[in-house]
Hints:
- By secondary structure, this protein is α+β, with helices and mostly antiparallel strands.
- Helices cover 32% and strands 37% of the residues.
- It is built from three helices and five strands; from the N terminus they run E-E-E-E-H-E-H-H.
- It has a five-stranded mixed sheet with strand order 4-3-2-1-5.
- The radius of gyration is 13 Å and the shape is flat.
- The protein starts with a strand and ends with a helix.
- The model has no long low-confidence stretch (mean pLDDT 94).
Amino acid sequence: MAVKIRLTRMGSKKRPSYRIVATDSRSSRDGKYLELIGFYNPIVCPAEIRINEEVALKWLRNGAVLTDTARDLLSKAGVMKKFHEERSSK
């Protein structure tokens, strides 16, 4: 099973918010997911990003593939920097 870290759309029409989730790559965008990693709200200024770093790092260590948008959000939150430092120290 290939695991992806990606966004699922929540919220109402024209007022989106997103969950950052770890999911099977074959499931639909808004389908069931394995674990909730965080939350992204682009409507507020500045955009609100909340990420559980331990869960995100766990999935990255296990080989989850990131979508481009999820990679950008995790980079802004500082999770990717921690992951790369962890890998380079080994």
